[in-house]
Prior knowledge:
By secondary structure, this protein is α/β, with parallel strands linked by helices. The chain is 40% helix and 19% strand. It has helices spanning 30-46, 59-71, 88-96, 124-138, 158-171, 189-202, 214-226, 244-251, 266-277, 295-301, and strands at residues 19-24, 49-54, 76-79, 101-104, 118-121, 146-152, 177-184, 208-211, 236-241, 257-260, 285-287, 292-294. Strand 9, helix 8 (244-251) and strand 10 form a beta-alpha-beta unit. Bound molecules: alpha-L-arabinofuranose. Alpha-L-arabinofuranose binds at residues 28-29, 31-32, 105-106, 159, 187, 213, 215, 240-241, 261. Alpha-L-arabinofuranose is lined by residues 28-29, 31-32, 105-106, 159, 187, 213, 215, 240-241, 261. This is Simple sugar transport system substrate-binding protein. Residues 26-281 form the Periplasmic binding protein domain.
Amino acid sequence: xxxxxxxxxxxxxxxxxxxxxxxxxxxxxxxxxxxxxxxxxxxxxxxxxxxxxxxxxxxxxxxxxxxxxxxxxxxxxxxxxxxxxxxxxxxxxxxxxxxxxxxxxxxxxxxxxxxxxxxxxxxxxxxxxxxxxxxxxxxxxxxxxxxxxxxxxxxxxxxxxxxxxxxxxxxxxxxxxxxxxxxxxxxxxxxxxxxxxxxxxxxxxxxxxxxxxxxxxxxxxxxxxxxxxxxxxxxxxxxxxxxxxxxxxxxxxxxxxxxxxxxxxxxxxxxxxxxxxxxxxxxxxxxxxxxxxxxxxxxxxxxxxxx
Length: 307
Ligand code: AHR
């Protein structure tokens, strides 16, 4: 194996405890809580010292955390970038300091791919495609317009951009499938509820809700029920993540289809950290395997769901 091109930070293989600085997006969703736990548990199990920060969904806080990890001379920096753009300067600072960076969960749009070692996480475009394909199949023979509202994730984030694009790609072939409103709900339950309330006020004829995550769908369900409508029947609901609460709503028939997004990235991250510290070659892209759930499949999977 070839040595990693900017070394393993400050821990030579095997001679001292590895220090990992991790800059998390926030605690905006059930998915994020499971992701944080996976990273903390896996770091402990691997015997690494983990420095962890929560950016409260703000890029400036993540940049501050990364700069502080550079100053503290950690061995490896990992982070899940809240948005895709605007990382080149701080990534260059890490590279100049000889500290390797690993991206988890979300991508950056930096043209210079040498600024990070690998990107571990889901294929969000594919997740959007799965959602769109299910809907396209469901309404393939529809003679009437199907009015869709979309709750987008955090503006500028990779999952919001990609889940929107993948979904649009798959529904484009059927002109009856119409996105009549699309707004961010910032991946939170509270915002999902608030925006759905506004959608329901503005449009009397909503057939489908596509939510970029379960939390926003769960908030929207509260708004739909408060408006006297039946989620899953009067309004068909598709979401992404498949966290326990989402799966419960699917099992109850309130969410019709969930595309899984796996938050348990900790073990793969720790393996990548070790490889980078050991100067081993590492894949530039590590994609997480994922599935989908109808209400019936959610019912079956729920008892053994970890998160
Ligand atoms: O980046 C992954 C997304 O971020 C999850 O789908 C969402 O729930 C989270 O907040």
